[in-house]
Amino acid sequence: MKLQNRADFEALMLRILDPLKPLYSPGGALLPLGQTGTTYPRRTIEMEGFSRPLWALAPYWMGGGRAEDFAQIYRRGLAAGTNPENAEYWGDPQDCDQLFVEMAAIAAAILEVPGTIWDPLSDSEKQNLSRWLDTINHHSLPHCNWLFFRILVNLALDSVGMPCDLALMEQDLDEVDSWYVGSGWYTDGTPNIKPQRDYYIPWAIQYYGVLYSVFAAERDPERAEVFRERAMAFGKEFAFWFDENGAALPYGRSLGYRFGQCAFYSACVFAGLEPLPLPVMKGIIVRNLQWWCEKPIFDRDGVLTIGYTYPQLYMSEQYNSPGSPYWGMKTFLVIALPETHPFWSAPAAPLPAMPAVYAMKNADLLMQRLPDGQVNAYAPAEVEKNEHGQFAEKYAKFVYNTRFGFSASRSYAALEQAAPDSMLAFVLGGQVFVRRRSESFTLLEDRLISRWSPFMGITVVTELIPTAKGHLRRHRVESAYDCAAWDCGFAVPKFREGFAVKTEGGRAEARNAAQCCTVTGKSGEGVIIGAWPNTSLYDPNTVIPAVKYAIPAGVTELETLVESEADE
Q1: CA-to-CA distance for 318 and 311, rounded, in angstroms?
Q2: How far does CA 192 lie from the centroid of its chain?
């Protein structure tokens, strides 16, 4: 798929959004896309479906694009959805309401294209819309990236002369600032409560900070400049998360937003920031979009599905509705740029040269780039206690890889259902136990060390050391029981050309024509775990090479070498 000029990006955006046109409600305020549920009601699910395409449509209109059919839908929808007398009224938001999340897309659209979605409204429609948006100032929000939704709403209301709460906006901005940890990185909330760093930093906090720096440049130049400086620092490190083949690191929650992974760089281009040279940022954006468009992420009608590289509910969170994936449309912010912008004529340049191993200390990750372009991220299992689902899988595996992905368990009743790739999995009493979070960890320049406990009476200290073709794992296991543990490699697709498995002594290998993973232990027995279907985020059918170790009561030292090769 060619992605070079503005017309190419517009065509891709419309290819993604055009299938939605016949699905809007008669009043335009609701967009029902499926029947799966979330923690919020059906009306809010359908409002979410309505709001998220605006992340792309507003920049499209801002850049001079013409989609009058969509513009009419959204003007009708904004009028109907905020009118308490209308059958499609979105409702009165309550504390911590998902509706506040969806207000951000509307606020950004008001800031970007008031002439398209605000000015044409009647006075009463403007009053209804502003009153409904202002409810965010009168309810509690989670103290995380949600505060930026309120910041954007107040900025938008102020821009069109409607009642807002600028004092509360300043308070929210101060709190966001308190989460800053360095090198462009924030935590998504108070660091000791929400310590993990994941995609919510680039596609939420950094993205909104860059938007704020553009739309509040005159009213708040000092803070705008801080956001810009931090984006510059962040953009240099975030490039490590991308593979030469276009894939981004599958790590953390909300991966169902898919190509939103590169949205931060779109925001930088939009704001005139160059943490990397413009052609390099274009290359990251283009290759990531192309990588995603090669995957079966749409249903037969062209609607995005819940999942990662294919429809997959096991990895979803409780807040993933059928409309949730359209948050990824934030990447299309670049189409706000005029035809004359140098982005459109720039080549899609390759990634810059990077060190083979890099300790990303403000993200608590050890990054590795293998000779064939694979990216490994060694993770410390540092997570908040308020899990949103599958946190052991999303944060606590030893390593996350751009070409093998990771697996989300069906259950912990059997190894095949747990699919514990990149984990040391203990089996006690017929149940599987893995690292869920670390009690402590140390990130050094060349290794990551963590102390963790899979089960009461078992403590493990794991040392992860990058090697030329993978990594070495050293485990010191103190166990009160006799048990067994499986040290697992990556999940390898099995219904592929050239698929073969092999075990010999303490070695296990799984390969196909494009990928190979080998796991070798100094002691133990090489085994192949047949993972249950639809556990891997990358492929519906996989096997996991592993070494099985006997763990006697007392102290046991283990050493496992994991190596991988991948052409795709």
Answers
A1: 16
A2: 21
